[in-house]
Amino acid sequence: MQYRSESDSVGTLNVPADAYYGVQSLRAQQNFCISGQPMHPVFIDSLILIKRAAAQTNMQAGMLSTETCSAICAACDRLLNGELRDQFIADAIQGGAGTSANMNANEVIANLANQMLGGALGAYDRVHPNDHVNMSQSTNDVVPTAGKLTVLTLLPQLIAKLGELHDALMVKAAAFDGILKMGRTQLQDAVPMRLGQSFKAFASAVRRDIQRLVAVGEEMRTLNLGGTAIGSAINVPAYYLRHIVPNLSSLTGQSLRQAEDLFDATQNLDCFVAVSGALKACAVNLSKMSNDLRLMSSGPRTGIHEINLPARQNGSSIMPGKVNPVIPEVVTQVAFRVAGNDITISMAAEAGQLELNAFEPVLFYALFESIQMMTGAVDTLTHNCVEGITANEEECLQYLESSVGIVTALCPYIGYIKAAEIAKRALATGEPVRLLVEQSGLLSAEQLAELLDPAAMTEPSTDTIA
Predict the structure, then answer these.
(1) pTM for the whole structure
(2) Which of the residues are catalytic?
(3) Which of 91, 151, 265, 432 is the most exposed place for a label (fewest CB within 10 A)?
């Protein structure tokens, strides 16, 4: 392999002669062998879009020549089309508040633009990574902005998948609405309900999650771009400061706004904590639902078995015919990961000192992973599980008829003490509640028929109190 020599403020390194990255990217690769994962591809796209918008704005401000701007923009367009992605070599988790990520983008864009203008790789004589590509910028406003653009790109995909899940749950709620079952609290028999009500409750929780995610996503639209190092906009022309965010909005198609307090927006990452919190709440709801589906489908012979989950794969290498609830299981595992990532994100946001938070790289790594894993988990839950669920109506009815929970409906008429006595006798003898009440003479057969109608117990009374 042939090399070229490049220097930075730390010293000199031999960079592969055909590399579009430079000395600072190579130093990052050597220093940060951490996750073994590259930067998220959407995050790289976001960095490139910022560089393109910055070049245009600097040209409009009279700071950058038309030729240099055109070369930078053309290089950015080629990279956005997928070229040279292997040249982004910085690990996703890195020290330096994301300087390595920023400089990796600067060097690749500069080398490609320099080459397009007839220069050699590593020469930077026509386009320089710092002087031209990074003009009017700092890592400290570029990287947070790239993080927000990435969330704005990824979050709608998750929200769309949650919408599909909500709709699938509502289809099941309608299909199962006529199926009576026993409700349970603390895993013990409670009072009657309809199976459709269980699925409608799942759908309501998902709808609430969608609303939360949409709301917190709006916080991602406020940027510190233009604030440079700490929010004071040092080295930034007035024109650039006024126009960089509108230009980025136009380029990305996103409705973006510049923060009123650039110092605040540079040092505080609570907006990302809010997004992670909404993700965690969603993960908790999805895991709770998945656990309920596992319980309701347990068996099939010795469990609850009120519903059937679609068989997706063999459940055992030793037990023939066994089928496990693998889709709900994987959703719950994703929820564990999202909850763990939320702790990482919270700690990273809290740990920033004074005018900058240096821990954005691990925060973004965790946040992007949470969004992406949740998107996949919701998709498989919808299409590989919920859509194929069927009900075991006879078993639901059998549980209902054998339960003593319906005695709860008699409390207003015979009192809690007598109702409790009836329940104990029913449990001890196995006789139906209806028969025991009738034998006791507490209520007539006609009254019992009305009061112990399971369907009537599943909805609030329509009686009005004057």
Answers:
(1) 0.93
(2) 316
(3) 432
